[in-house]
Amino acid sequence: MLTCRELTELVDDFIDGRLSFWERAKFQMHVGMCTDCRDYLAQLRATRQALGSLPEPPMSDDVREELLERFRTWKRATPCSGSEPGGEPGPDGATET
Fold first, then answer.
1. How far is residue 23 CA from its own chain's centroid?
2. Where are the domains of the chain?
């Protein structure tokens, strides 16, 4: 059976339907026996539903294009493998340490 901590790490995948059959069964078994986790799941579902009904914040065309360009160049600048942790450039091109 899952621990409460393990459940909280899987709750988004559970709600989105991304758990395997066995992971889902263990999740549901825990929720069936743990009132705290059952409450947590209900609160998270309610929060996601409320947030999903909010309108998208306005964004100017300039900001949108700038973000899209940064993501395009970030994907090209990020090494695929073999790089040292902390040395990869972020979306703004700066190297994080």
1. 18
2. 1-77
Fold of domain 1-77: Arc Repressor Mutant, subunit A (1.10.10)
Q: Looking at this protein, which amino acid is placed at residue 94?
A: A
Asked if 51 and 84 touch (Cβ cutoff 8 Å), the reply is no
Residue 37's nearest CA partner among 49, 25, 29, 47 is 29
Q: Which residue has the tokens 């539903």?
A: 49
The answer to whether 60 and 32 are in contact (CB under 8 A) is no
In a structure prediction context, what are the per-residue pLDDT tens digits for the chain, which is 97 residues long? Answer: 899 999 999 999 999 999 999 999 999 999 999 999 999 999 999 999 998 888 888 989 999 999 999 988 886 665 655 544 445 555 555 554 4
Distances (CA, A) of 51 to 37, 45, 54, 59: 21, 10, 5, 18
- pTM for this model (two decimals): 0.57
User: Which residues neighbour 59 within 8 Å (Cβ) at sequence distance 6 or greater?
Assistant: none
